[in-house]
Amino acid sequence: MLPAAADFLPELQFQTSRSSGPGGQNVNKVESRVELRFRLLESQLLTDEQKQTLQQKLASKLTSEGELLVVAQEDRSQLRNKETALQKFHELLTKALHKPKARKATKPSKGAVRQRLESKKKHGDKKSNRGRVDF
Predict the structure, then answer these.
(1) What phi, psi does 130 have (nearest 5°)?
(2) Are 72 and 87 spatial neighbours (Cβ–Cβ below 8 Å)?
(3) What is the maximum span of the chain, computed from C-alpha positions, in angstroms?
(4) Model's pTM, two decimal places?
(5) Do 62 and 50 touch, CB atoms closer than 8 A?
């Protein structure tokens, strides 16, 4: 079970910088871009098994120091970007730790098989009646 996003706060580092994109003069003076850094291997909240799984599944998102890096700069507000980064972080962890349910192989019921064969027979008869008519 994954802890809530708020539980990770002591283990997260936030860094702000100036965002690119629209925003007029605001962009040049306000640091609204938020980088969230999480040291995966040093986390106290995750089990060793979870750390191993995350390291494999999120390998492309980890820095060379083993930090998970999440960036948010969609909004003009630093606070909203921080909330977005937290949300993205939690979704990443949740998605990476999700174990899909094992599929159980099943066989079609006898009634379903019989119905399918009857349908095929009926369709074949319909097509065979479309042949040439001899006088």
Answers:
(1) -90, 5
(2) no
(3) 93
(4) 0.67
(5) no
